[in-house]
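INTERNAL TRANSFER SHEET
From: sequence group
To: structure group
Subject: Alpha/beta hydrolase

Please process the attached sequence and return the structure record in the designated field. Keep the field labels unchanged so the import script can parse them.
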Amino acid sequence: MKRTIAHLVLTALILSSCNNTNRPEQTKTHGYSEVNGIKMYYEIYGDGKPLVLLHGGGSTIQTTFGRVIPMLAKHRKIIAVELQAHGRTSDRGKDATFEQDADDVATLLKNLKIDKADFFGFSNGGTTTIQIAIRHPQIVDKIVLGSALSKRNGMPPQFWDFMKQANLTNMPQELKDAYLAVTPDPKGLQIMHDRDAKRMVNFKDIPDEQIKSIKAKTLIIIGDKDVIKPEHAIEMSRQIADSKLAIIPGVHGEYIGEITTLKSNSKEEDYVIPMMESFLDK
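Return from structure group:
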């Protein structure tokens, strides 16, 4: 009974978060755009130079960025999107790839008449940001790569073993509840999970020459207890010529208050976001 009550309370909090708290007064626009065969959901906050936010796997805009959007929107026009099969964005009936996600974001920005932007991608969104910088450099100014993966050896071997056996029951409950709060479709939740799991199982290294081709000024952020190995972030910072590296105390996503880390009650975003803004504004 206690577990049921706790689950109901968590669901209510997520619903409130998705519908109210994390869509604050500075929201300018939210809607859908026809993008390469899918209806892509986006939200726009604030005014100023565009900064595109790309969420992690299995996530929505709010589960990844809900804690930091109000901070970032004070000085920027924030364009936050939900990628294929995630949150409110539809599925195209094909496997998800980081390359396709990158092309989808580029098309969305064209539809929104945004010629160039900065990008902040977290986790899978960070890998998508790498692909945007490689495939669409003309739309990129600066990029922030939060816990981004470019090589399989960037993860411990047990991660890949886990992904081969991934199933919906192992997905963090906070992420499942958040998806169903904005898209009450259990079949859609299963599709999102399966697309993300298959993409990771089939993940192939991004070639060194492609990483080295990135010309955008880059800030790489990682937690010292991240699922991504610190050595991987260090190597990527050496491959991208104009890059900086920040290793922050905490686990995967704790430095931006990602929803599964909220129980830690940390406030790392209070100094990470100003650091990121300082990088973007130089």
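Handover comment: The first strand starts at residue 27 and ends at 35. The chain has one domain: 2-281.
Transfer complete.
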